[in-house]
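Worked example 2:
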Amino acid sequence: MLRPLFTRRRFLQAVAALSAPVCAPAAAADAPSKSRATRVPTINVKDLGAFGNGKLPDLAQLRAAIRDAAEHPGGATILFPRGDYYLGAADETTLLSASNLQNIRFVGEQATLVCKSVNGTSNMLMFAGCRNISLEGLTFRDAGYNRNLPDLGAVAIRLTAEGRIGCENISIADCKFDSVHAAFTCRESEQKGSRNRGIRVTNVSVRHAVFGLNFQHDGDDVVARGLRCDDVKRSYFPYGVSRHDIELEAINNATGFTDVLIKCYHGDTTDIRVKLKSRAKRGGDAIVYLDHQNEARNKIIRNIALELDIDDVDCKLEAAIAFRALDQKYNEERITDRQWQNIRIDGDIRICDQTKLFDFRSASKTPGSLYIGPRLARNPRLPRSFPGFNAEVQRS
């Protein structure tokens, strides 16, 4: 018998541990004590001269608001009244940035941050080494985004480290991302030893983008609830990270890319739970891929739990779930040294007769453990063998 990835008690403890510290800044800000309310100032960007009409430049005023907030280590709220705040042209640059900021809320009242990409990939708002930050009620839009030009577009929110200090306790709630390269990205810092962690995403929508949530060898202890991606190439793309608990809906992906790609490059990818509802997937090689890229030896994809609800897909889709390993020349390895361990999959998957339920494009020399839950076990398309795995199928 395989040991369960999460007992109910362990899972609830893990989710509670992830959720509590991330939500704390926002919760405290929502219900401040009377004495605390008098100590935490509100910085209204329009009081600093921001126009908010979508035409005149607001970048200098918003930078001033962040500088003012940094003068209040005990906390502050940066308020964006209703309007479109134009950050200007984005030419491979970072438009708004904050370093070592603490205890700050960015609150929008039907407010949109707008830029216009003219060259390369830029960042609209970057946090470096920041703690206890919440973003609420903001919309991000790139007026120059063109998905047909893969290197043109803005990342709405990026986290990185400042020296050896990573970001921690970051909350993004009730925000919208429309026509951006990526809604949210964590990227490995050049300074080794620093990690971003403690990230909470709640009630967020992403439309017409390359990435929804993207974790590039950085970003641990992540909880996402109410994430909805519409016409997004890759809704959730983690690698080299651990302890993620993600619930999302992906709809109208006709790009040929996977909704969820869990990958391993040169760092282990472990302890990830994904609950995915996928609708109107059109074409592509898979909806969920567990993929190895041959950049370092002895790396592993381990402790992955997938709960899938898949429907309304066309017959051009090759497979619902796929496993693959690539060599250094990006060729598929039919037999590989790469490993997948303790993979648990369940759910309801309704696909075309021409679409495979599983596609084992690579098989590990060291058989991994694969657990098929009772709902998926009832699927008539379930294969009889699982190459590269010791599989346990729970029939009831």
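Helices lie at 8-30, 34-39, 59-70, 374-377. The radius of gyration is 22 Å.
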